[in-house]
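Exercise 7b. Backbone tokens:
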């Protein structure tokens, strides 16, 4: 019984390439492509929330001048959504 199953599977596998050839007929390969996902594009603007600040701090028995940097918020606006492009590649 196992031998019959193996012979049947082999016959089906041999018929598959022949069926594919008849479906294509006389088609010829023109170009090859791959899918490339292009990420979304955003327009970003920085908005200053707080100015930089300098302060004197007493530390380790001395007085130090330290600066805290400015604080910004980034606003993003969608310019172009994520999409898929077809990139031509060589057919090897």
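Sequence design result:
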């Amino acid at each position: 019984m196992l031998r019959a199953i193996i012979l049947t599977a082999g016959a089906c596998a041999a018929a598959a390439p022949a069926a594919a050839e008849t479906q294509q007929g006389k088609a010829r390969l023109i170009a090859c492509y791959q899918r490339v996902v292009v990420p979304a594009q955003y327009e970003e603007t920085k908005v200053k929330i707080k100015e930089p600040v300098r302060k004197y701090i007493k530390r380790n028995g001395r007085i130090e001048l330290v600066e805290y940097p400015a604080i910004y918020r980034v606003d993003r606006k969608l310019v172009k959504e994520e999409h898929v492009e077809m990139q031509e590649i060589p057919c090897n």
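Instructor comment: DSSP finds one helix and six strands in the chain. The longest strand covers residues 41-50.
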